[in-house]
Amino acid sequence: MNAKFLTTSKAVEILKNNGIVAVPTETVYGLAGNATSSEAIRKIYKIKNRPADNPLICHFHSLLQLLEYVEPLNETEKTLAEHFMPGPFSLMCKLKSNSQLLNATAGSNFIIARIPNQPLFIEILKNVPFPLAAPSANTSGKFSGTNAQMISEDLGILIDGIVDGGNCNYGLESTIVDATNNIEIRILRKGPIGKLEIQKVIKGIPVVFSTAKAATPGSKYKHYAPKTKLNWFEKEEINHLKLDAAFLLTKQDFDILVSHNVKLKEQQLILLGDENNPEFISKNLYHNFYLLDKLNFNTAYISKCVAVSESGIAMALQDRIFKAAQ
Ligand code: TXA
Ligand code: MG
C-alpha cells in the first residue's frame, strides 16, 4: 500500500504528535521523528528494522538551535560549520550533559548533527519545537530513497506520510566528519563535501579518512545494496562478462561493448551516465538500483566508476558502488 502525501503543515502536526514522516533533503530522503521523544525514536527503529545500537543522525534548522543541545564548537568545527552548514555535511558533536537527545544517539554522548539545505525540510524544522532525528528513509541495509515513489514502495503504510520534494539534488548521503579533537579532521563517511573541499577552507589541519571500523558510520552494517547481487568489473574484462545478467553501465563502458559488437537487450541495461560526470551518476544511482531490482535478475554488473577527481562527490560515488558490490 502506498504512503500518504503530506503538506508541510500536516507533517508538522503529525511530528508534534510523535508520528513519523519521510521528508526530502538535498542528499537523500530522511525518516523524521521528534528527536527528544523516546516514543518517536522507537517507531523509527521499528519502521526501518534498524539495529538498536545504531544511533540516529539529528537535524536542526540552524547553528543556533544546534548549540542549544551540544557543547561549544572548537575552532575547527566552527570553520567547518560556517562553510558547510546548511548543506550535505554532518558534524559529530558532544552533547550537553543530561541531554534530551540521548534516546536518539542510543546512549552515546556524541551526536551526528546536520543542518539540511532543503526548503521544505527547513520549513518543517522551523515549525516544530524540537530537532528531528532522521536516518535515511529506507529499510535497514537497503540503499537510500531519493524520491517519494521509492519510499512509498519501500515503507508504504508503515509511515504516517511523505512530504514530496521531488528528486534529491545529490542523491548520496551527507559527508560525516569528526573534528572533536581539534587536531585532525576525520571523514567518517564520504559524501558530497570531500577532503578536497575541506582543505580549501581549512589550512594546516590534516584531513584523514577514518579506519576505526566501529566508529565509522555505515561500515559496521551492510548498506547501500540492491537486492540483485551486484558485481563490478575492470574495463579490460568487460566483453568477457556473462551476458545472463543486468548491466549498469557508464556511457564509456557501454561504448566499449558496442565496439565489441556485444548486444544487450533493453530489459537488461541501465545507463548510468558519463563517467566524467559523477554528479549526474550519483544523483540517479539509488533510483537506478531501484529500477535494477524491478528487472528481476539474480546478478548484475556495474561500472566501477573509479573517482575521476578528488572531489567529494566523485570519491563518494566510488565508495557507494564498492560497498554496494561487496
Ligand atoms: O544525508 C544524510 O546524512 C541522510 C539524510 C536523511 O540526512 N541521513 C542518513 O542517515 O544517511 P543514516 O542513518 O542512513 O546514516 C547516518 C550514519 C549511520 O551509519 C549511523 O550509524 C551514523 O551515521 N550515526 C548517527 N549518529 C551517530 C552517532 N551519534 N555516533 C556515531 N555514528 C552515528
Ligand atoms: Mg542509511
Structure report:
The protein is of the alpha/beta class and 326 residues long. 31% of the residues lie in helices and 17% in strands. The chain is built from ten helices and 13 strands. The protein has helices at 8-16, 38-48, 63-69, 75-84, 119-127, 148-155, 195-201, 251-259, 278-295, 312-324; strands at 21-23, 30-34, 58-59, 89-94, 110-114, 132-133, 175-178, 185-189, 207-209, 229-233, 246-250, 269-273, 299-303. Strands 1-2-6-3-5-4-7-8-9 form a nine-stranded mixed sheet, sandwiched between helices. Helix 7 (195-201) links the parallel strand 8 (185-189) and strand 9. Helix 1 packs across helix 5 and helix 9 packs parallel to helix 10. The longest helix has 18 residues, at 278-295. It is globular, with a radius of gyration of 20 Å. The chain starts with 7 loop residues before the first helix and ends with a helix. The model has no long low-confidence stretch (mean pLDDT 94). It binds threonylcarbamoyladenylate and magnesium ion (MG).
